[in-house]
Amino acid sequence: MTKQTLSFQAEVAQLLHLVTHSLYSNKEIFLRELISNASDACDKLRFEAINDGGLYENDTDLKVKVTFDKDARTLTITDNGIGMSTQEAIDHLGTIAKSGTKDFVSKLSGDQKADSQLIGQFGVGFYSGFIVADKITVESRRAGMKADEGVRWISGGAGDFEVENITRPERGTSVILHLRDDAMDYASAWKVKGIINKYSDHISLPIMMEKEEWKDGELINPSDEQGGRQPGGMVKTGEWETVNKANAIWARAKKDITADEYTEFYKQISHDFEPPLAYTHNRVEGSTEYTQLLYIPGKAPMDLYNREKSAGVKLYVKRVFIMDDAEALLPTYLRFVKGVVDSSDLPLNVSRELLQESRDVKAIREGCTKRVLGMLEDLAKNDKLPEATTSAEGVTDVVSEEDKAEAAANAGKFTKFYNEFGAVLKEGLGEDYANKDRIAKLLRFASSTTDTVSVSFADYKARMKDGQEAIYYITADNAAAAKNSPQLEVFKKKGIEVLLMTDRVDEWALNYLQDFDGTPLQSVAKGAVDLGKLQDETEKKAAEEAAEAFKPLLAKLKEALKDKAEDVRVTTRLVDSPACLVVQDHGMSTQLARMLKQAGQAAPDVKPVLEVNAEHPLVKKLDGSVHFNDLAHILFDQALLAEGGLPADPAAYVKRVNALLV
Ligand code: ADP
User: Which of the listed residues 331, 361, 381 is the one where a domain comes to its end?
Assistant: First the structure.
């Protein structure tokens, strides 16, 4: 093959532009990204070699080498991993295959500042090399291919790249960065080692650098490695040393791992720039043995709501990387969790299909789920700063400065988590029957008396009125619609709190939760309102009498609206509004039906019940009105509008209202 010049996919060009223009303040991450790619390449080789040992080509000593050449102004990262064929180099280094990254790029606004914040949430991978390099040369040969089937890829990081065929006896990949003027300090062992220690200590592969020593230099100030030497400089010795710790962090003892190391490992596997909210690290022994290191991120990825999205847990078997995104290891509603599971029991050649059926995996999944829920419970418990308690003798709790600092560091984390992932957690009510109660305890809602999403079912119960027998809630498209819904009127009047549910998933999820801790959940928009003991005898009696007196009018309304309403009845739930719509006890709400239809899914035609307020002047006016028919339809359509719906025939509605206005 002769040299050919190819164009980057449009998204790559866009990403490259952003990378080189916005990551100045975070230059050094390029090394983490490239070393992580090298390590992935070795993982892939090890995995493919399980079935084809020949791929090792008699070299099983997998490693990454980092070298630099001050004169040539290059920094090179070399691995003896799986390598790339020419086609793979074209595909992988010229296009973006990962849907997450693609979505990300499509969200870029062109506004530099906003975009650079966005990129903080994303792994920029290979392209980050262009932060420090104005040209990158990649030389590679895929394991198992012939020496003359190597490839050289060159690009200046603008619109295109070149590829040509080369001979490369050694398997694997070299990424040669031609350093920019302002990045020449990366051609220094001292600097590079520092970055490797910071980001890549946990890479389970040795990262090697050539040892250097001072030539003819007098050591004047031993505390400063650079200091005091003559500029004769450092010379390479030809000896190689491993510069990272080179063992898998999760395999080390907890007590030997610092919080910073945990955080750096998280950043490495998640490509997140921010630290995680929490992590848990355990070695589980018993009939199924495995190690888990799981993290809860602080920020939701762009594609969180895609249930098809890959999971975030990597599976290892006895330290050998098996697969990314092993969805069998955690239920879908915990898809935001990142981390590693290393099993000692699974076979190395385990497939995704096998994982679904394995009893060991089932045990791991249960164990991981429990741990994650446990972490969330801890976050919830520590979300608020504790108040100092004063005992009966008047002695105020003495809290140590350390405890105070710890409490301050943990405060607000659960709120942060819930804002990002709360809606996803709710899916668990339907998905994870066994843990339904634990999940329900973690849920938070806004309510008719609390604007922030902070009310738990337990908080609600503690505030229930005497005689109140149910937890009341309303589902709506948004907080304003929920708060101002006519269905809430009587609850407001009586000072009864109602939970406002405005996440799309709420109604579906709530189907799976009939009660909380023995108290039934009751939608205020379903079934006839029954305030039970909250209503006094006179109120009950008045309601019954109104219903009786209204019977003839109801019959007429029913007849007029027979195509629209399932039934028409008098209600006590309204105070200011003339009418509202409710659905039968176990029916699907009109909002949910509307949502399903908008999403192009099949939904039953829900015929709601029209409830009228016998005390309202408009309703009183109905009787004997010459406009009875128009008023009846307006009443119905307005009730629909009030809950965020649209009349079936909006033009007819407008015509009717106008006729009356005139
Ligand atoms: P990511 O690693 O997140 O998939 P990158 O842009 O970093 O994205 O890399 C794109 C692809 O290029 C990788 O998925 C891999 O297939 C290939 N690649 C990158 N570096 C190497 C390497 N050192 N050895 C083999 N393949 C590599």
Answer: 381
pLDDT band at 643 (very low <50, low <70, confident <90, very high): confident
Nearest CA to ligand 1 atom 1: 125
**Residue ID of nearest Cα to ligand 1 atom 20:** 37
List residues near ligand 1 (CB under 6 A). 37-38, 41, 79, 81-84, 92-93, 98, 123, 125-127, 173
- The CA angle 7-110-105, to the nearest 5 degrees, is 55
Same-domain check for residues 565 and 643? yes
- The CA-atom distances, in angstroms, between 365 and each of 102, 474, 525 are 30, 34, 38
Amino acid at 132: V
Q: Is residue 419 part of a domain?
A: no
CA distance 523 to 573: 13
Tokens of 248: 């898998």
pLDDT of residue 106: 72
Of the listed ranges 111-125, 147-161, 413-427, the least confidently predicted one is: 111-125
Q: Which atom of ligand 1 is nearest to the CA of 79?
A: 23
Ligand 1 atom showing the smallest separation from residue 44 Cα: 25
Query: Do 305 and 236 have their domain in common?
Result: no
Centre of ligand 1 to C-alpha 368, Å, is: 29
| 276 Cα: distance to centroid of ligand 1 (angstroms) | 25
pTM of the model: 0.72
Q: Do residues 238 and 257 share a domain?
A: no
The ligand 1 atom at the shortest distance from the C-alpha of residue 101 is 3
- For 365, other C-beta atoms within 10 Å of its C-beta total 21
Least confident of 334-338, 370-374, 549-553: 549-553
Lowest mean pLDDT among 18-32, 121-135, 138-152, 410-424: 18-32
**Per-residue pLDDT band at 262 (split at 50, 70, 90):** very high
- 212 in the same domain as 91: yes
Tell the residue nearest (CA) to atom 16 of ligand 1: 92
Mutate to test the pocket of ligand 1, among 37, 91, 136, 176 (most ligand atoms within 8 A of CB): 37
Tell me what the mean pLDDT of segment 215-219 comes to.
62
Taking CA atoms only, the protein residue closest to ligand 1 atom 9 is 126
Token duo for residue 450: 């609390």
The mean per-residue pLDDT over the stretch 550-556 comes to 89
3-state percent helix, strand, coil for the chain, nearest multiple of 5: 40, 20, 40
Q: Residue whose CA is closest, atom 13 of ligand 1?
A: 92
pLDDT at residue 222 greater than cutoff 60: no
Which residues on adjacent β-strands are paired with residue 291?
283, 342
More confident residue, 380 or 359: 380
Strands of 22-122, DSSP E:
64-69, 74-79
Q: Residue 355's pLDDT band (boundaries 50, 70, 90)?
A: confident
Could you tell me if 256 and 206 lie in one domain?
no
Q: Are residues 306 and 184 in the same domain?
A: no
Q: What is the DSSP string of 15-40?
A: HHHHHHHH-GGGTTHHHHHHHHHHHH
Full residue range of the structural domain in which residue 139 is found: 4-219+230-242
Q: Residue 117's pLDDT is what?
A: 59
Measured by CA distance, the residue closest to atom 14 of ligand 1 is 92
